[in-house]
Amino acid sequence: MKNSKHTIVKFQDKILSRYEIHKRNFPRRDSFNPYRVLVSEVMSQQTQISRILPKFEAFIEELPSIEDLAACDKPRLLRLRSWLGFNSRALRLQQAARIVVSEYQWVIPKERELLRSLPGIWSYSSASIWAFAYNREEPVIDTNIRRVLLRELWLDHSIKPKELEDIARSCIPSWKSNDRHNALMDYGSLVCTAKHTGITSLSKQSRFKWSDREVRGWVLKQLTKGEKVDTEIVAKQFPDKEVKSILRWMKKDSLIVLIDTHIEIAQ
Fold first, then answer.
1. 67 vs 49, residue with greater confidence
2. What is the pLDDT of residue 2?
3. HSE on the CB side for 226, CA within 13 Å?
4. Taking a C-beta distance cutoff of 8 angstroms, is the pair 178, 143 a contact?
5. Residues 6+ apart with CB under 8 A from 37
6. Do 141 and 129 share a structural domain?
7. Catalytic pick among 41, 138, 214, 264
8. Is 57 a catalytic residue?
9. Are 42 and 111 in the same domain?
10. How many other CB atoms are there within 10 angstroms of residue 1's CB atom?
11. Mean pLDDT, residues 103-115
12. Structure confidence at residue 39 (pLDDT)
């Protein structure tokens, strides 16, 4: 499935022209800082962007550089990150920061393979760092962008991911990858919405409430506040959950240590 050069140019002009007038201002968009992009991408994995914005600003204010993140102690790190769930992501983010500091002289690598080798950096995250931090012509396809591409380029909804990726790459103007992707995300969020188009996402995010994530988040919130927590307290708080199993996984993720029934943050 191939679009003509005229179709692609027309599509580019439509999206970028609207972006120039209706651009939304998000904290990450104020620079090409790879560290800020890295933090926001890891924070937003399986989490809505609206939830991460205030926490992202607080995180960057307290840990403004990759050196600060690498040196941060675990309780402070989890306090900055804990309310978003998936707290093990915070630990992988710090592991990535420490590798960058120790092996790459404080510079987040530009090479895709090196990026993907960092803990917690998925294929999507590495593509985002390439596109947003380094302005490379690499397609980033989230739910909003997929919907825009399908609608505006009249693509079959069953198109294979690799074919969609190739088409998306052909639509990136030279050295405008950052603006182009931000423009597509805005257009998908505000104009070409799921309600307006009837195009649904490939998968739906599971709800946080009543999931194991709620238990993990509650435990870490109490610990980072300095509260005493033991397995009995957690079991009473969540009588319908498999608390022992959840705590074992938290221990395996190096989030906590268990001393008999007493729970502490792992150091």
1. 67
2. 64
3. 0
4. no
5. 28, 128, 129, 132, 133
6. no
7. 41
8. no
9. yes
10. 12
11. 93
12. 93
CA dist 192 and 146 (Å) reads 10
Q: Write down the residue that tokens 């380029």 correspond to.
A: 153
Burial of 108 (0-12, 13-18, 19+ CB in 10 A): buried
| Distance spanning both ends of the chain, measured CA to CA | 53
- pLDDT for the residue 82: 66
Residues 242-251: pLDDT tens digits? 999 999 988 8
Contact 250, 216 (CB under 8 A): yes
The total domain count for the chain is: 3
Single residue among 133, 163, 186 that ends a domain in this structure:
133
Claim to verify: residue 48 and residue 112 sit in the same structural domain: yes
One domain, residues 128 and 142? no
Do 113 and 168 belong together in one domain?
Answer: no
- Residue 206, in any domain of the structure: no
Over residues 124-139, the mean pLDDT reads 93
Amino acid at 16: L
- Distance (Å, rounded) from C-alpha 211 to C-alpha 132? 32
pLDDT band at 210 (very low <50, low <70, confident <90, very high): very low
Query: Nearest to residue 66, comparing CAs of 102, 119, 24, 111?
Result: 102
Per-residue pLDDT tens over the stretch 222-235: 988 888 899 999 99
Q: Is the pLDDT of residue 212 over 90?
A: no
Alpha-carbon Rg for the chain in angstroms:
21
Edge to edge, the sheet with strand 229-230 lists 229-230, 262-265, 256-259
